[in-house]
Amino acid sequence: MSSRSLARWASATASLKLRFQLDHSMGADQYQVAASDFVRERLCAGADRPTKLTSHKMSISFTAHNIRLDDGTFTKPDEASIDQQPWFVSARRILQTIYPTDRQKIRIADLGCLEGGYSVEFARMGFDVVGIEIRDNNFATCNFVKSKTKLPNLKFEQNDAWNLPSYGKFDVVFCAGLLYHMDTPKQFLEMISSVTSRMIILQTHFATTDDKINKFDLSPLCEHEGLRGRWYTEFADDAVFNAREEARWASWDNRRSFWIQREFLLQAIRNVDFDVVLEQFDWLGEETARNMLDGYYHTDTRGTFIGIKAGATT
Ligand SMILES: C[S@@+](CC[C@H](N)C(=O)[O-])C[C@H]1O[C@@H](n2cnc3c(N)ncnc32)[C@H](O)[C@@H]1O
């Protein structure tokens, strides 16, 4: 077992109190299922993965994605189902625009796929989907969802998103809630572009020049990888970092992340060879102006960015 796998395994068993600043409201709904056998089978399948022979029953819990399963039940019934969520609806719009028909050969990667909700819905649209997720608990949840949906065009892989190139080329990369968990986001975008033939859909926080907008306790504006932005602390200390398996929405290897300033993010998407660079606003719905001026878009500095390779032939 590699040292990285050992570290992951150790962190999976840690039970320390976590300090979450961002993305960590764990209103998890529990699916009390006999998941231990299921998890054991999946984790033994990969050579570099920890052989996790748990005797206890792992509970499958949903922290965010309310997914309709084939039997008509929902994974997080207190919330709107993911196919109604504005971020998904806007992704579906752009995908339907670019790919109105014949989707079965179009490959989409869903990076940091959490509980697999977006992946499931892309597969239901007819795309060939690979969801990539690093955390044991999240991955187990994805596979639970996979077992409850009949979608042969859907696969989940437990891996670091940085290893995306090992899954070949993709037409589309969907990257929601992950870029701002990276400490070298420009390099991450370069990696994504190297395997993407047509489009990136990037749902992400960004930094601004306004020091007064600081809900997330970001650093002063600075330069990193040749881009302006601000640092965000993911894990306050070693104890929190060592329990990172439990921080189900956080970064993985890096203790801080770099949030690129919006203008430089648009520039970076262009610089990694997407000729068409857009910001998609329709997820703000009827409230676009208010949201941008003083609503969620303004306070949380979060948007959907699209890069398209116009010359691509696939
Ligand atoms: C904020 S959540 C976003 C989840 C989902 N994409 C969404 O938008 O609902 C970030 C996700 O990325 C995963 N993640 C973080 N770093 C990762 C990495 N290096 N490789 C793969 N997954 C990662 C986390 O475990 C978590 O599931």
Describe this structure in words.
With 314 residues, the chain is of the alpha/beta class. The protein has a single domain, classed as Vaccinia Virus protein VP39 (Rossmann fold, 3-Layer(aba) Sandwich). Helices cover 29% and strands 21% of the residues. The protein contains ten helices and twelve strands. The protein has helices at 3-13, 36-44, 86-98, 117-124, 136-147, 185-195, 238-242, 262-271, 288-293, 296-300, and strands spanning 29-31, 60-62, 107-111, 128-133, 154-158, 170-176, 196-205, 222-224, 227-233, 256-260, 276-280, 302-308. It has a seven-stranded mixed sheet. A three-stranded antiparallel sheet has the order 8-9-10. The chain is globular and about 50 Å long. 39% of the residues are buried. Bound molecules: S-adenosylmethionine. S-adenosylmethionine (SAM) binds next to strand 4.
Number of helices: 10
Q: Which small-molecule species are bound to the chains here?
A: S-adenosylmethionine
Tally of extended strands?
Answer: 12
CATH superfamily: Vaccinia Virus protein VP39
- Kindly estimate the percentage of residues that lie in beta strands according to DSSP: 15-25%
- Count structural domains: 1
Shape call:
globular
Strand order across the largest sheet: 5-4-3-6-7-12-11
Query: Biggest sheet, open or closed, and with what strands and sense?
Result: 7 strands, mixed
